[in-house]
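User: For a benchmark we're assembling, each entry needs the component sequences followed by a predicted structure for the full assembly. Here are entry 17's components. Please fill in the structure.
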Amino acid sequence: MDITSDIHSRHISRQFNHELEELKTHLMAMGGLVERQVQEAVEALLAGDSEMAQRVVENDRAVNDMQMKIDEECTQVLARRQPAASDLRLVLAVMRGASDLERIGDEASKIARNAGDLIKIDNGTRGFVEVRMISEHVRRMVRDALTSFARFDIELALELVREDEKVDEEYRSAMRSLMTFMMEDARSITPVLNLMWILRALERIGDHANNLAEYVVYLVKGLDIRHTDLEDLDEKAITRKD
Amino acid sequence: MSVFPLPQSAAGGPIIDFDSAACCLEIEGLSLAYGETPALRELTLRVPRHRVTAFIGPSGCGKSTLLRALNRLHDLNDDVRLNGRICLEGQDIHAPEVEVAKLRRRVGMVFQAPNPFPMSIYDNVAFGLRLQGGIRKRQLDDIVEWALRSAALWDEVKDRLKSSAWALSGGQQQRLVIARTLAVRPEVLLLDEPASALDPISTLKIEELIRNLKSQLTLVLVTHNMQQAARVSDYTAFLQEGELVEYGATDTLFTNPRLARTENYITGRMA
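Assistant: Structure for entry 17:
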């Protein structure tokens, strides 16, 4: 059966309601922090702000701590409550979600580190257009993934799965233009490599947002759509209410 | 050939797609009332052979009543009115040619509280066989040992078969009762809350036993303990107010039930 976002507040045990609500709240808080990390990492690059880049690298520790806290809370719920059905799916989705958010945090920190290197080299703004475009795209994906999780919104989640393919295409095309820069001017190889790492990190962030969206489908419908081609996805079956 | 149409869930549609060839018990349109009080309403389901099927549901949902109907324990109660059919291996258990004593040998039952007879461990297990008669001592010894081994009790009692069954612990007594039931080689074993009076370790031993017995016979388990049903059963039927609400593979019923009523019950939500 389909579930709605208030389903975890209807247990006979109010303490259990509270524990599950906490899991969701903490995942959203972690998501908020990770979103900011990505935004600031890209901003640091585009604005040439090395202090900001440094701050993003340092803040990654907070993201890691949050993941460990959420994992611990999930472990407690599993051990004490032996959750079933939608409760079990929530705990699993939160655990997996926290793991992907942590990886997004790692990618943000990679972006910031490469941004720091680039700022030192003073490469100008070559390649920034590509970074800006892809970063806006993946940041919207992360935001939509978190929103779909918060609202149990499957349609939004599926839209996001489709978006990921577009990001992959943008990534490939950006890589091609960066390669021409390198061929034109051998001195640009080092800074362009930094940019490539940044684009690669952004593309990975899109993948992790995509994973989050897949967990939302699992949470709400009990369907595992990981490793399923878009063409094979029977969206009607997924979005049908039962 | 199917004796009955596929069972329907409350939402409609066939829910278990094993064919009747693999079914041991088939229940069709079973209704049962204690006097004027209905206890089971139009129940249709199949119990697959060599599998563990669990009945779960709130107190008074009819799960024990259903279990008892499977070996005609209600026969002794004049107040009970029963409609519908129960078939064991294709034969209606209420058919005139079916002897109740014989049926109960084929369909054994174990209750919540262990009820060993006030006699030795050996005599408990041999009881049913002696009642049947015509078995030599040597053969009896072999069957008693086999039954106690099957019930995972042999190693604990082999040196004191002549001592009183009442000297055993609760968990051992329950396994002894299972051995006593197994001794007459039933095809079906009905278990009504077999572990609810036992400590956690004894409970795990009973659960392990249930799992191991699957290769020999068909098991039907009634339990209040949903985790237990999730742990040991292959199929789970959820009953509420005498109705079969949802019946399906345990794998999906506890992770992704089809109906909100099932979801609410197994996750402890208010209806």
